[in-house]
Amino acid sequence: MSKQATPQQAIAVNRKAYHDYFIEEEYEAGIALTGSEIKSIRGGRVNLRGAYARVQNDELWLFDAHISPNDQTGKYFQHEPTRPRKLLLHRREINRLLGKLEQKGLTLVPLDIHFRGRRAKVKLGVARGKKLFDKREATAERESQRQIERVLKERRYDD
Fold first, then answer.
1. Which of 55, 83, 108, 114 has the smallest C-beta neighbourhood within 10 Å, fewest atoms?
2. Residue ranges per domain, the chain?
């Protein structure tokens, strides 16, 4: 009996990042977590809105990601919800990211948290901020695409 690879399912998605930024490149990083944090993530109690990643002392850190405290964990073992969390990448990947982030206007934002096997991973995006007119243009494009799909769906049922 062969094992099939299960598709990775996002536990939390940072929709605001896709709205506010153009994502130029994506990376996948591991996260150093405590036991109560991983239990909360498995329960889907995580929020990435407003979170960002930064390189400090040649290490990659995730800031302002909110992982809710776990109800089943005792008070002594509880974690702080918005503490900085270390992200795990190879040294050459961190150096490559540093080179990209030194360019004007680029930042590193978490796009989602998912599980690969039993380990929690963060998908990071090297992003460039959108201007207001870019956001309007993206919204108009999305609306026109929905309208096209709606018309095509009606035609399929008419035939």
1. 83
2. 11-130
